[in-house]
Specification:
Layout lengths: L10 H5 L5 H6 L2 H18 L7 H16 L7 E2 L16 H11 L7 E2 L4 E2 L7 H8 L3 E5 L2 H13 L3 E5 L5 E2 L3 E2 H7 L3 E5 L7 H7 L4 E7 L15 H10 L4 E6 L17 H6 L4 E5 L10 E5 L1 H9 L2 H4 L4 H13 L3 H7 L1 H7 L2 H17 L4 E8 L11 E8 L3 H9 L5 E2 L1 E3 L2 E5 L8 H12 L1
Parallel strand pairs: 1-15, 5-8, 5-9, 9-10, 10-11
Antiparallel strand pairs: 2-3, 4-12, 6-7, 11-12, 13-14, 14-17, 16-17
Helix pairs in contact: 3-4, 5-14, 7-8, 7-12, 15-16
Length: about 450
């Protein structure tokens, strides 16, 4: 039996062939050589039959060059039904936020320039006033993510001292990072109290010593404890914290600014509620339920925020002009809660009625059928994602594709833009709660292209 790989030409033979002359004329030598090597390697690994003529080789090398030119970070269509999908970039930005990013990215900006004084300003002031207005905080600070906010806060208030935390809140967050490991890198020693499922006020009180620097509450991400459980809320901690002059640091996580009880989403406190409960410092993410860019938002008393702003770590954790522009524009929408619900994509996705999604699904099914693709409209269940409302499920509607589910999944992921869905009960599905109406034609074209 003949091994097809023995028939593969050498790199130099392909490079010097007439068929690749056009590519040699327009492609840097080193890039063309790498593309040829990659094309040959693919044949060796797959054991596929080599092309019989030079033009076919040229076509394959051209495809390899195009793959190499394709950006690794590019737009995608989220058909998973997970609204805040961390792997797919979490919250899509609202149109005003996109416009704000574009405006400051195109040229110079007032990032650290005070136009009134005609001299140096501070990037830390750009979102602070809006955050104070929307949350009731005395002051606010924005850093690059919520983990950085936690490190900065604890490093400022509890460096070389202990932070008391419930064992039930020693959570692991995305990418196998664990909260206690992050905190220890901040130069803070953790004092875990209580049991995994039950922690009482007395556990905190007994742990307080002259070495205690803070009481810490951490949002449980991606899971919920139920059954024989007990935990201590922030208001219950306040008397002990005041008696010993300790700050309560609350990692709120989700970044909720508006209550979503009318959508059946309960149990996540808003930032304003968390501050009113008595936390000295509250931190949250910008790219979760808030619906803005990745950022860590710190809220608290003016003296404590000022101390964090003066901490040298603040410079290491600072955000750039595009993040600040997107966050400021997103926050401005919250001045009108109804406008925020309409314009911020995450809130709009959460609020869309299942009947509306079903109507879109039926229209997509009809249009795909006209183009030779058979699908079925099925009921689905969407989730919030990113650790927010971890047990909540939203009724949704999906397109289920007939045929080999793995082939559909691979073909749509390989498209431009890639479409990411789920395989449920052996069928590939695209949940339309996370596919906005404005992406309809992109989705339909991607599906038809995958068939071709």
């Amino acid at each position: 039996m003949t091994d097809e790989r023995r028939a593969l030409p050498s790199v130099s033979a392909l490079l010097g062939s007439d068929a690749l002359q056009a590519l040699r004329d327009v492609t840097p030598h080193a890039r063309l050589v790498e593309a040829i090597r990659a094309t040959l390697a693919r044949h060796r690994e797959d054991g596929t039959t080599p092309p019989a003529d030079g033009s076919a080789w040229a076509s394959q090398v051209q495809q390899m060059l195009q793959l190499d030119e394709r950006r690794s970070l590019r737009p995608a269509i989220n058909g998973t039904g997970v609204v805040l999908h961390t792997n797919l970039g979490r919250a899509p930005l609202a149109a005003p936020a996109i416009a704000a990013v574009t405006a400051v990215a195109q040229g110079y900006s007032t990032l650290e320039y005070d136009v009134d004084a005609g001299g140096r300003g501070s990037r830390y002031l750009h979102c602070a006033s809006l955050l104070r207005e929307l949350t009731g905080a005395e002051d606010a600070l924005v850093v690059n993510n919520c983990a950085a906010a936690l490190v900065l806060a604890l490093n400022t208030v509890s460096l070389d001292r202990e932070a008391v935390i419930s064992r039930g809140e020693l959570v692991e967050i995305g990418g196998s990072f664990r909260v206690h490991e992050i905190i220890e890198r901040a130069g803070v020693r953790l004092r875990a109290v209580g049991a995994t499922n039950r922690t009482h006020l007395g556990d905190y009180v007994r742990a307080i010593s002259p070495d205690t620097g803070a009481l810490l509450k951490v949002h449980r991400s991606n899971f919920a404890l139920s059954g024989f459980v007990a935990e201590v809320d922030v208001p219950s901690l306040v008397p002990a914290a005041r008696e010993h002059g300790l700050p309560i640091v609350h990692d709120l996580g989700s970044g909720l600014l508006l209550p979503l009880d009318d959508l059946g989403l309960r149990g996540e406190p808003t930032a304003r509620t968390a501050l009113r409960a008595g936390a000295s410092i509250v931190m949250m993410s910008g790219d979760k339920l808030l619906g803005g860019p990745q950022a860590g938002i710190i809220l608290g008393s003016a003296p404590r925020v000022a101390a964090m702003r003066a901490n040298p770590l603040a410079r290491a954790f600072r955000v750039d002009k595009m993040t600040l522009a997107a966050l400021e524009a997103t926050l401005a929408l919250y001045r009108d809660p109804e406008l925020a619900r309409r314009e911020i994509p995450v809130l709009a996705m959460l609020a869309e009625p299942a009947a509306s999604i079903a109507a879109r699904a039926e229209e997509y099914r009809r249009l795909l059928a006209l183009r030779g693709v058979d699908t079925e409209v099925v009921e689905s269940s969407a989730t919030i994602g990113a650790g927010a409302f971890p047990t909540a499920e939203l009724p949704s509607v999906a397109l289920a594709f007939l045929g080999d589910a793995e082939r559909w999944s691979a073909a749509l992921r390989a498209g431009e833009p890639p479409v990411v869905g789920r395989i449920v009960d052996g069928r590939f599905r695209i949940d339309l709660r996370t596919v906005p109406a404005g992406s309809a034609w992109l989705l339909l074209d991607a599906v038809v292209t995958a068939v071709d």
